[in-house]
Amino acid sequence: MNITPYECQACGWVYPTQSDLESQSIVPFSKLDDSFSCPLCGVGKSEFRPIDEATETADSEVCQNEHRQIVIIGAGLAGWSVVDAIRALDKEIGITLIAADNADRYHKPMLSAAFSQKKTATDLIRFTGEEATNKAGIELLTNSTVLAIDSDNRKVRLNEAELSYDKLVMAIGATPAIPPTIEAQNVWHINHIEGFISIEQALSNSNNAKHIAVIGAGMVGTEIAEDLIKVGHKVSLLDMQHTPLALMLPKVAGNKIKQALIAQGINFMGNSRVDDVNALSTGGYQMTVTDCDTSGKHKLEVDHILVSTGLKVEEALPQSAQLDFDRLSGISVQEATLQTSNPDIYAIGDCMSIAGVPCRYVAPLRAQASTIAEHILAQLGKHPKQADEGYEHQAYVHKPPMIRLKNKSISVSATGTPTANEQFAEWQVFSDTETEVGHELVLQQVTADGEVVATATVKSTK
Q1: C-alpha angle 210/212/215, rounded to 5°?
Q2: Residues with Cβ < 8 Å from 18, sequence gap 6 or more?
Q3: One Pfam annotation, family name (predicted)?
Q4: What is the domain range of residue 443?
Q5: Number of structural domains found in the chain
């Protein structure tokens, strides 16, 4: 049976998966129910495109002079999304993409589920940086570090070069916020494919199961903990809160997630703070763990430590460009255009915030990139529709995406702006149902005025 694969335009997940292809009863994408959504990022069926109809762009002669029309800093999913959006409107305008790595395009949401699916880093890469560059007809600067941005003179300063630009896009992402009690060289993190490659290699050096401490029981930490235990490793999941996803969901939901993790064999250590990490001469590490309530301490020995305790945005570039910025939330942008406090500089993805709220989900990236591309081209007089009377830029409107936990042991999804902080909106049980296959709990977060600002659904199997 010949099945056309479809790719999620937001995160790159492909239907059907390799395991589906081994099945004898694959449902063609066109026959899927209209309620189908991407299991990684939650976008709807309309955001998928057949892979064999992917837009091809002709190679173009790369501009080699010092002046670049559009410069994009960062070659992750956000940066490449801007390239795609610009090329969809203009095949010729000069684009220079600056990457700190080799700029390979890969499925970032798959990083926290790759081990159990037996995916290697090579499996996750869709195109190498060189392949993607040739396809898009852009100039790519790989393994390059941007030292500073001179926003007054519209220049980007690198180690051995200085580029001027007409418009600049910041797609610099965010970096792991490693607790101050832990030295960075003692831990792994999976925030990009290089981090995944590092821990993949470390785990593959031995055929024996390892004891891995995952610090941080947010979404990524919870997902990677299950992913690692499914391939035979011992996992201790530590968090300063009593339950997983405790900053997002109320305890009634967190307790169900906790129970599902424990049932998988994960050693969940809530209410725990790591105060010290010492490398052992025999290999591995000894951690000093403190109970946040009683201050009692105990030692935990592990082979590896993986940190997933949130993100921060590095300050050097935003501050050098004199942009409105906060290390925790990122670069402040105008919602309608995604321009920063400097109108010639835009920001997208993990590094930016709207009204003080960071935007660190994959699903909105395509719409954000489209807004930036439209606005930049219009500003440069290159938008193909500018000649039409009444052309007006379509403002970006930020809509919180569906949040979906990728754990197999329990189904968790949320919409709106869920938060465990009930100061302004209280969590209420909307329905609590026993089904033939398990249990479904639906929660709503409701303001004093009766407005539902978030909904969470937790489904567990018997």
Answers
A1: 175
A2: none
A3: Rubredoxin
A4: 410-461
A5: 4
CA-based nearest residue to 49, from 79, 11, 18: 11
The CATH number of residue 228's host domain is: 3.50.50.60
Q: Nearest 5 degrees, angle CA 365-CA 371-CA 375?
A: 145
- Please state, in angstroms and rounded to a whole number, the distance separating the CA atoms of residues 10 and 77: 9
**Model pLDDT for residues 270-285, shown as the tens digit of each residue:** 999 999 999 999 899 9
Q: Are residues 115 and 263 in the same domain?
A: no
348 and 434 inside one domain: no
The burial class, CB within 10 Å (0-12 / 13-18 / 19+), for 354 is buried
Dihedral, 324, 416, 77, 177 alpha carbons, nearest 10:
60
Q: What is the mean pLDDT of the chain?
A: 89
Asked whether the beta carbons of 209 and 234 are under 8 A apart, the reply is yes
Is the same domain home to 295 and 351?
no
Q: 120 and 106 in contact (C-beta within 8 Å)?
A: no
- Check whether residue 170 and residue 82 sit in a common domain: yes
Element (H, E) at 291: strand 285-291
Question: pTM to 2 decimals?
Answer: 0.85
- Given a contact cutoff of 8 angstroms between Cβ atoms, the answer to whether 111 and 117 are in contact is no
Query: Angle between the 77-89 and 129-136 helix axes, to the nearest 10 degrees?
Result: 20
**What would the mean pLDDT of 337-346 be, rounded to a whole number?**
98
Q: Are residues 289 and 190 in the same domain?
A: yes
